[in-house]
């Protein structure tokens, strides 16, 4: 608090974080929003591609739809990443759009609780029956996929400044996010309670 009282400005990685400093609103503080995103080093592309499943041929011209989950888990009975919604929608859309790759990236699949195991098992089951749906785990780097992505889907219940959102936008992908926090201006927002996300995604994909 002492150090803040002597500062003239505060740099935030997302606009909604300003709510953490409500007691400073009436002072002379200047707030700046600056994303923590840095463009990736594309020289490493080939080595990253070698970590993907053999069937996931990113450079063969297939378009991709991507969603990412850090670790499926419940907080107060809710999954912040909306993992089950992602799997349900991707399972359905992969049948409607067989030429598009649907990629679910779960960074950490080591959870031992029942919910984590259920989500990972469900993702594996869907991957087995859908030739165009892939599960990436163990913290795979995603940016080479975003070079081919036409849509990044982020239906989180809350959020910080998602680097993945900026990465997707950097490579030209459309970004569809829940409206639970302030999002960058390039995002298309939807409401988790009132909007049909599958219909929204279909309308986007049919235009590609």
Task: Describe the structure using short key phrases.
208 residues, alpha/beta, six-stranded parallel sheet, two-stranded parallel sheet, 7 helices, globular
What does this structure look like?
The chain has 208 residues and is α/β, with parallel strands linked by helices. The protein is 29% helix and 21% strand. The chain has seven helices and ten strands. The strands form three sheets. The protein has a six-stranded parallel sheet, sandwiched between helices. A two-stranded parallel sheet has the order 1-2. Helix 6 links the parallel strand 8 and strand 9. The protein starts with a helix and ends with a helix. The model has no long low-confidence stretch (mean pLDDT 87).
Global geometry: globular
How would you classify the helix and strand content by structural class? Answer: alpha/beta
- Mean pLDDT over the full residue set: 87
As a percent range, the share of strand residues is 15-25%
Please sum up the structure shown.
This protein has 208 residues and is α/β, with parallel strands linked by helices. The chain is built from 7 helices and 10 strands.
Secondary structure elements and their pairing?
Layout (H helix, E strand, L loop, with lengths): L1 H5 L2 E4 L17 E4 L11 H5 L14 E6 L4 E2 L2 E2 L3 H14 L4 E6 L7 H16 L3 E5 L5 H4 L2 E6 L8 H8 L3 E5 L9 E3 L6 H9 L3
Parallel strand pairs: 1-2, 3-6, 3-8, 6-7, 8-9, 9-10
Antiparallel strand pairs: 4-5
Helix pairs in contact: 3-4
